[in-house]
Amino acid sequence: MTDDTAVETGPVSASGEFTLGDDLRVRRLGYGAMRLTGEGIWGPPKDPENAVAVLRRAVELGVDFVDTADSYGPYVSEELIREALYPYRGITVATKAGLLRTGPNRWIPCGRPDYLRQEAEMSLRRLGVETLDLFQLHRIDPHVAADEQFGLLADLQREGKVREVGLSQVSVAEIEAAGRIVDVASVQNRYNLVDRSSDDVLRHCTAHGIGFIPWAPADAGKLAEPGHAAARAADALGATPAQVALAWLLQRSSVMLPIPGTSSLEHLVENCGAATLELDRDTVATLDAAGS
User: Fold this and answer.
1) Which residues of the chain have pLDDT under 70?
2) What is the longest distance spanned by two Cα atoms in the chain?
3) Is 72 an active-site residue?
4) pTM (global) more than 0.85
């Protein structure tokens, strides 16, 4: 899944690159495939052809890192990715397991090792690959010993079914605990202009060369409203507040890997355009202060 000769050149190439783990090199602005499913991240989309078109257009714009999860649909997002992008030449597909779905917008942590193994095997089958590029624990299940969950990830890696391992919505202490059992290549926490509650995790990832994948990265909250910091910066740069929010992330840390998601071709093009947007020091300082 990493034949670089097939990667498109587009605006996303301006985001730079980052190496996940030992040698999994990706461009720093990716695509999050959660929103391709039905309402409530449940069931198929109303327009499957549009979902496929969005994925293919993302690659045309230079995206080579696509993030999904077994729980998106469930299973729908992975199936759409295979339909649109298989055999993934030059494209890294990251997936996750660890959340059960019982209905729209309902998410239940499940970290039993037998369940995680089953979901990894099913993701391999749905994506049509022998090894998952990046397999992430979607949530640490508080009802299962954390070391058992981390140990299962290590087992899958030793067996060659998983190339790199990631965690989602974790603390520094949890990253360190996992790191004693398996090498952690990435962390995916909520982080954006208006939610910096994971600043300590970002600092830890930056210091240790761990990829930081912020979810809800384009959220600028009230800062996107007319007269507020992100909106003012967007007006001055001829950009959108979402583009400013993404550009701010890219400049905040060298390990930052935003994965904005959308089911709109128009918004996809806008998001990818953020890779070419440079914020000067004064703008960055203003945004830093506004969101703190």
Assistant:
1) 1-7
2) 54
3) yes
4) yes
